[in-house]
Design brief:
Number of helices of chain B: 8
Mean pLDDT of chain B: 84
Largest sheet of chain A: none
Distance between the termini of chain A: 50 Å
Radius of gyration of chain A: 26 Å
Structural class of chain A: mainly alpha
Shape of chain B: elongated
Largest sheet of chain B: none
Number of helices of chain A: 13
Mean pLDDT of chain A: 83
Low-confidence stretches of chain A: 131-139
Oligomer: heterodimer
Helix content of chain A: over 70%
Helix content of chain B: 55-70%
Radius of gyration of chain B: 21 Å
């Protein structure tokens, strides 16, 4: 892991001058290290390049749409395999009919439109802060302490700290986000909705998509179904982490 | 084949802008030529689809290079990319003889087409490995890749110290690199050629 640390610090530009020069000399003379360095650099680029991945997803979607539309009309040009293609087409068609039939039976026999409250219970889980839980209070910042409390399930304590933070700085959107989460956990749903809504939809922050998801869940829990569906639709359009779950909820709501 | 809806320039700009309507037009205009070429050269329908997607990805990457200038029709260029990539694929599959029914115009391209295609493949692969990490590792590495400082990541993740964040980042990155190396044959792949 020492090599990883060195490479990461070099890539982040946090190595001091002597260490940086030393590393560069090593790179020049060590082909193995050089390859590893290029791998780290390229992996970082792979993580960062959202535009590339978005384009790829779009191409796959357009490809699927095109072939779904073209399926009946594609000419069979390959001279060697017509019998196989016909047989496999029949098999796929039969399988498709069985699946559609089964789905229809299940849908109309067992599944009715789900109630918002039930859907909330099914899909809500506290936000995973993934922090180290300790039995004693930490010496961290007020925000960190509030997040620790939330992570431990001590939502009331978290809420008190978050309210203090917000009263000092109304623009602390991270605090508003966690306040929304704490209120939702304490069943103070209208306050949760209000807290999430303080944060603008164009907040340029990794927590935005989580804010939007929990806002949608809060609206659902508060029986603001139409508004919830609008937000879930927004989530599906962005094709992010929660998109699949949003699609399922919309379907179950019958929207 | 020329589009009645879009000029070459509009098609090219639509690709950069990731316009879905424009991308659909690429399929309408250009896919069948690529398909015919692949089927006539030891390929399958599935191969043709995969190849066309790869060619679009290469064209997309080329378009992001501000110095790139299209010096022929878009259809010819895209066909040429597809042809180049398919020849490379056939070499990889060790097809030593094939019948080439190449009636379409094509241009000779630089070898950077293959370099771009290989790099695209690796980018997709890294993303797949990345998505297999835990949510926390993904968050930490994504924030780090975006340029967030250790201090910022510490606050955003709710960690209790910067040293913890630093170590977490190293562990996550090490794990990701190990996964990539395990799944990727390092003997066949070289990095930093782009």
């Amino acid at each position: 892991m020492e090599t990883t640390k060195l490479i990461e610090e070099y890539l982040c530009g946090t190595l001091n001058e002597p260490k940086r020069k030393q590393f560069e000399e090593r790179l020049a003379g060590d082909s193995e290290l050089s390859r590893l360095y290029e791998l780290h650099k390229e992996v970082n680029e792979g993580i960062r390049d959202q535009e590339f991945h978005q384009f790829r997803s779009l191409v796959k979607q357009v490809d699927a749409d095109y072939f779904e539309a073209q399926h009946e009309s594609l000419p069979v040009e390959h001279p060697l395999k017509p019998a196989f293609r016909y047989k496999s087409m029949l098999q796929y068609a039969a399988l498709f009919l069985v699946l559609v039939g089964t789905a229809a039976i299940l849908r109309f026999t067992f599944f009715t439109e789900a109630k918002p409250g039930k859907l909330f219970d099914q899909y809500y889980t506290p936000y995973n802060t993934d922090i180290v839980m300790r039995s004693t209070q930490t010496e961290g910042t007020a925000l960190e302490n509030a997040i620790v409390d939330y992570g431990r399930g001590d939502y009331s304590a978290a809420l008190q700290k978050l309210d203090d933070l917000i009263s000092e700085n109304q623009g602390n959107h991270v605090a508003w986000f966690y306040k929304g989460l704490a209120c939702l956990a304490l069943d103070e749903t209208p306050e949760a909705i209000r807290s999430f809504r303080v944060i603008e939809p164009d907040w340029n922050h990794p927590l935005l998509e989580h804010r939007t998801w929990y806002l949608a869940l809060a609206l659902l829990h508060n029986s603001n179904t139409e508004e919830a569906v609008a937000v879930f639709n927004d989530i599906t359009e962005h094709k992010g982490y929660y998109a699949e779950r949003a699609v399922r909820i919309i379907r179950k709501l019958g929207s | 084949m020329r589009s009645v809806k879009f000029s070459d320039k509009e098609l090219f700009q639509g690709l950069i802008a990731q316009d879905e309507r424009v991308l659909k037009e690429y399929y309408v205009l250009y896919f069948q030529n690529v398909r015919r070429y692949v089927l006539s050269n030891s390929g399958s329908e599935e191969d043709a689809r995969d190849l066309f997607q790869d060619a679009l990805m290469v064209l997309f990457q080329k378009s992001r290079n501000k110095s790139f200038v299209l010096s022929c029709s878009l259809g010819t260029f895209l066909y040429s990319i597809s042809r180049r990539l398919w020849l490379k694929e056939l070499t990889r599959r060790r097809k030593t003889s094939y019948e080439s029914l190449d009636h379409e115009d094509f241009v000779d391209l630089d070898s950077d087409i293959e370099v771009i295609s290989d790099r695209n493949e690796r980018m997709v692969f890294y993303k797949i490995c990345f998505e297999e990490l835990s949510e926390a590792c993904r968050k930490v590495l994504a924030l780090s890749a975006e340029g967030c400082s250790i201090a910022e990541i510490t606050v955003l993740m709710g960690y209790t110290s910067e040293q913890y964040t630093r170590n977490r980042r190293y562990r996550c990155k090490q794990y990701l690199i190990d996964q990539v190396k395990q799944k990727l044959d390092l003997n066949e792949v070289s990095y930093g050629n782009n």
